[in-house]
Design a protein that fits this description.
Layout (H helix, E strand, L loop, with lengths): L1 H20 L3 E6 L2 E6 L4 E6 L5 E7 L2 E7 L5 H4 L9 E4 L4 E6 L11
Antiparallel strand pairs: 1-2, 1-7, 3-4, 4-5, 6-7
The structure holds zinc ion.
Zinc ion binds next to helix 2.
Length: 112
């Protein structure tokens, strides 16, 4: 009976956790518009922000960060790795934000 209860508990944990782990994306908002990137595909790319500032975004192992930025304060770089849905790095001088959005809930109703 104890093992059965344990089994249900494990199933419940997977049921709640698994859907959040799949389909997560990183939403990059810049003066050029919004773009979503899959977190499951490692990549590194540049984003053009306001005032000629350029940010380098890095994605690996299901997480994303601002690896480099031309902005003066570097707050976006210091935000470090983002992996949980809702976490964000914002670069105010460049008007760029990098945010983790959770799969199915983040289709089109995103306002930021
Ligand atoms: Zn910045």
């Amino acid at each position: 009976m104890l093992s059965f209860t344990l089994f249900i508990a494990v199933v419940a944990i997977f049921w709640y956790c698994f859907p959040r782990r799949i389909g997560r994306k990183v939403l990059v908002t810049s003066p050029m518009g919004e773009t979503r990137y899959s977190l499951s595909q490692p990549s590194e790319f540049s984003v053009s922000g306001a005032d000629g500032l350029t940010l380098t975004i890095q994605i690996e192992n299901g997480r994303a960060r601002v690896a480099h930025s031309d902005c003066p304060d570097r707050l976006c770089v210091h935000s470090g790795w983002l992996s949980q849905s809702g976490q964000a790095a914002v670069c105010v001088p460049a008007a760029v934000s990098v945010r983790i959005v959770g799969g199915e809930a983040a289709v089109d109703g995103v306002t930021a």
